[in-house]
Design a protein that fits this description.
Length: about 150
């Protein structure tokens, strides 16, 4: 059975309360529950973590290399600022798919650049909570291609 880490970055613990016009009304727990239901259908085990700390996110990525097969990661605000997270993604030997609830390319200009995406297998944005769902499917398909 494949093991996938779903890693949520800063301020995502406030989903459902924070700017619902941009991020939707679904809570982080609600997103995780929907992903766990889908994971069961895909015969995948999920671990979901969230941190507001850049260092804790880096540590989670490092740990994922040991016990997980892949990562679905929303670096949130760190997307546009963190070379350290980019380096952590590049350093691990498992695929990472970057996801964002909003379309970062249609927002403020400082959000148009993702420092982390270049180290990822791919990036999905702008589909609300379904960005995570599509990211889960993408990472599972990537892992299946590696086995074949």
């Amino acid at each position: 059975m494949k093991k996938i880490l779903v890693l949520h970055g800063p301020n995502l613990n406030l989903l459902g309360e924070r700017e619902p016009g941009i991020y939707g009304s679904l809570s982080l727990k609600g997103i995780n529950n929907l992903l766990e239901e889908e994971a069961a259908q895909l015969d995948v085990t999920l671990t979901c973590e969230q941190s507001n700390s850049e260092g804790e996110l880096i540590d989670a990525l490092h740990r994922a290399q040991i016990g997980q097969n892949g990562v679905v990661f929303n670096p949130a605000g760190y997307t546009h600022t963190s070379v350290a997270l980019r380096d952590a993604i590049a350093a691990i030997q498992i695929p990472v798919v970057e996801v964002h609830l909003s379309n970062i390319h249609s927002r403020e200009s400082f959000r148009h650049t993702s420092l982390t995406a270049g180290a990822c297998a791919g990036m999905l944005c702008g589909f609300g909570w379904k960005s995570y769902l599509y990211g889960l499917h993408a990472i599972v398909e990537l892992l299946e291609e590696r086995i074949v």
